[in-house]
Task: structure prediction
Amino acid sequence: MSQIKYMLLTSRQGKTRLIRWYEPFDAKQKSKILREVAANVLSRKSKMCNILEYQDHKVVYKKYASLYFIAGIDLEVDNELLTLEIIHRFVETMDRYFGNVCELDIIFNFSKAYSILDEMIMCDGSIIETRKDEVIRIVEAMDAIESNDDLDRVLS
Amino acid sequence: MGSLRNFIKDVRASRTLAEERAIVTKESARIRTRLKDDHISSERRKKYIQKLLYLYILGEKTHFAQVECINLIASEEFPDKRIGYLAAILLLDENQELLTLLTNLLNNDLNHPSRYVVSLAMNALGALTSPELARDLYVDIKNILDHSQDTLLIKKALACAAKLISRDPSLLEIFAPYASKILFDKEMDNHGIIIGTNKLIQSILIHSKSYEFDNLPEIIDKLSALIPDMLATLQHVNSGLSNLRYNVEGCLDPFLQVELMTTLRLFLQHFPEKTEPYKNNYLDTLTHVATYTPTSSNSCTSVLYEAVRTIFSFQAEHSLRVLGINVLGTLVAQKDCNTKYVSLNALLDVVSIEPQAVQRHRKFISRCIFDPDVSIRKRALELTFGILNPTNLKELISEILVFLEKAEENDRGLILYCADQLIMVFDMQENIDDSWKLDVIVKILKSVGQYISVEKVTDALIMINNTSNLDHKKQVVSDIVNVALEKTTSQVLDENLAWRIVSVWCIGEYADLILGDSKFSETSLTDYLYKSDSLHRDNSVVVSYVLMAALKLSTKIDTKTLIKKLREIIKSHTENTNVMIQTKAVQYGIIFNEPPAVKTALLEPMPIFEKKIPETSAAKTISQKYSAPAAKKVKKKENDLLLDLLGDLSLPEPTTPSKIPDDLLANPKSSATLQQQNQNILNTPTFTRNPIEIPPNSISVHSSDTVEVFGRVELTNSDQNREITLFLKAKKDIKTLQILIAVPKSQRAEFGPLSSHMLSSGEVARQSLKIYGPGSIKLRVKLNINSIADQFDYKFENRT
Result:
């Protein structure tokens, strides 16, 4: 069962590139987590494992190029190794959508990145679609309607 | 105002943090003003909200735009809706009153002709469901499940239904039928749908407790009819027979496999009686998954790991449990550190249930003690102490010694943990030979003495003092002092305080033993004390040891000038600012000047120090103090306190403690029961079990018709570290016994193994634990007796 509490993308410098909360934390908790978890993850050495305990939950992270993908998960129900797979799936899907995704793609097209994430994970951080092509098909279909709408507007 | 793209570029181009802040604040203020205008075009509004979302990612305040996202959702244009819904998910949460504004919009969009609008609306509903929204909108979700043929929508509707139930459990009656309806519809070879169905079933099982209507049994009956189907699907997918589009590095849809196992596990946990007819199917399928899933990639190991978690979530057959542990053993042996981490964690959870089976994998567990990752090292060490028993003791401890030799500054926590555990094990294992124990302790002091606390050093001194083998004692003392005196070796660093204390103490106590050796001279010993004194003048602990040693050494040497030097050491402290040291120095100064005969008599060698004595004598005084009626009164009070806290938690009236045998108390030497317990602490099922007796001063903390639990707090000198022993007396035969104990968050507990997992009627099992941290001792204990759970809380009265 996946019950992700938050998905956070952080650059090597500690700048947040994407953040999605699946549990209603209050503003104070949010800023604390953003600050502490990112600092904690960034300070870890490459040989260390990708799982750590933080407050009342676990944090699973993976570094892809200059970007850290960090997921907060439940201590009991979540499977840490599967969470790594979910992160990897998200990265792969973006990679196919953007074509060799890099940090800049996510910075400038954050709403597309959110769109992909929302087709994969819903509600209380549970995974709903495990196929990359299915996710991309839906996001691209929505992109197409959007550009058609724009076109219509220009023509009218 | 520029475009979003330019705004992002500007922010990124700023050279300093201050510059970035200036740009961000300015833009934020500008957006805020513009959004106040009611007549902005939706095109503009969309742009502002997009910029705001970027500000949101940067961590800026964005609350003022919450109403605007709702305005965007209300637009008829798809691009507006898309941004509007994204903004709503990010900027709102379910606690906000604004959600009432959303109800109508969601209601419209859930019935929109475009599947993408419906899909977006469900994303938002899934993220923002409040109990009110759940009640207002469940009809729309039901409608989709009834009429739609679109897999995208069905999949999301199922996930939404699961979420709605979590907010209003009474809805589970409405949605439960869809689980069977959809899962049986074999036409849909779509994993998204199966996952959605699983989410729905999981939510129903989890929230069934809060469902208040009496048709729950029927609902659950219908759901549990799906179990064989789900087991079959799991085996089917695990064998790689399903749709290959879901392949992930040699593993077919690990996400689905894990969800299926979660659902199956929830059935076992919430409705074990419903799973009874399918017991063999469970067994077969879990065996299949645990046996045939390869370990070649992370996706495969995640499935294996989940299978093991499922096996240990219920009272599985012994053979299945052993299989589970063997799988974990294979995972511990993997290269990948995440796999090692999770499998060590899982082994720690089960080591008390199947110590023998875990034992078999000790080779790989030991290897993890040297892992570069400290969190893996920590778990491996804990596990090593968990599987320690008399037969593997020497082997495992030698591994731990190697670890300690290599340990570094940042392993401090682990070093202390090891030292604590080792001394505890040694105290309890009385039948291991003393010389070996002593050698181990000396090695520890040598390699990591600088990290070890003074109390632990005292334990080491007691061991040296108590060792009965005189030759060995001489050897050890001589080695200790020799290493300390050698100037050339940097083996023992100046900061190794523990070594300093031990060597100083040895010189004071045993100078006569080693002075015959040519390596040592009266001068070298005296100089060493002198040097230790001047090096550590600020450290009152070292100074007190030096003072004592100087006094004692003076009776063991003959050279006048050296005796004078020793006297000077003592004299130099008579005006020490530390009152304790000053008093000591003055008193020792007086003794120093006594005639030799008096002095020698005063400074005789230490007697054998019985470490257990304070424990037994303390126990004695307490039980004497609380003679029967008084004890009863105290307990009564405790019970009342507990009732006040927890309302009517039906606690049984505490029964009077087992009769106090008077002779045991009268004769402090008869600590036979204690020794028996000590032997038992590491016992394994193969050992003949010594009957454990409940010490007379234990308090009855809990009683049920199968077991009676007694507890005892061992008095230790500090409030920070207390030992508790629980005794479980069986009233009936107990085939499987498991105990889980939790302490308040402010404290940390360390557990010894449960002495026995099987009891016949009248027998007693023992569980010891150490609690670190201040405050009164409150335990929450969960017993699992013959797979029936029994939970209770207990607070020990603070009597120190």
Remarks:
- Chain B touches chain A through 70 residues (CB under 8 Å).
- Confidence is low (pLDDT under 50) at residues 612-689 of chain B.
- Chain B is about 60% helix and 10% strand.
- The longest strand of chain B covers residues 721-730.
